[in-house]
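Hypothesis: this fold can be encoded by more than one sequence.
Test: take the structure tokens below, design a sequence, compare later.
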């Protein structure tokens, strides 16, 4: 496993939503937002200009790829991470932007509350998260809402990370 994946896997314990706006880069910040492809990298310079966003900590494309594997009912493999296109790498990888696969966005947008609850239980029990379902269910619910906004406006979802 590449070093950056291994370190991300180690850091990704219990993704708790961040209650405060982004101020600098402390810990592993994870903002998930809706944008058009041609505007997505602008998030790094001006996140406040993207109103449809959620802020978390310790969540990366690794954890999102495990969620997607669970949604699809397939075993997680490293190759799934390649489907999260990397659009931005700054400061030696300390700031990244990845695009969620459009099929994941589509599938998120149609999840029912029952499916969300079932996914939360499975996702929370993965090695990457190892936490309680109640801690990740709001994240999935937020992803569902962003996916619905993205689908309704012909946009996509992106994740911005800052170490």
């Amino acid at each position: 496993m590449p070093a950056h994946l291994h370190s991300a896997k180690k850091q990704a314990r219990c993704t708790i939503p961040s209650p405060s706006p982004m101020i600098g880069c402390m810990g592993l910040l994870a903002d998930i937002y809706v944008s058009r492809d041609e505007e997505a990298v602008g998030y790094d310079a001006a996140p406040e200009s993207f109103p449809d966003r959620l802020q978390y900590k310790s969540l990366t494309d690794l954890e999102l790829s495990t969620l997607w594997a669970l949604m699809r009912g397939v075993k997680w493999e490293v190759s799934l991470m390649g489907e999260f296109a990397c659009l931005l790498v700054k400061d030696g990888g300390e700031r990244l932007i990845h695009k969620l696969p459009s099929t994941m966005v589509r599938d998120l947008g149609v999840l029912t509350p029952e499916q969300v609850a079932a996914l939360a239980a499975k996702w929370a029990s993965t090695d990457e998260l190892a936490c309680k379902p109640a801690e990740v269910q709001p994240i999935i619910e937020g992803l569902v809402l962003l996916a619905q906004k993205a689908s309704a406006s012909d946009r996509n979802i992106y994740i911005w990370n800052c170490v």
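The longest helix spans residues 133-152. The chain has one domain: 3-41+49-162.
Hypothesis status: open.
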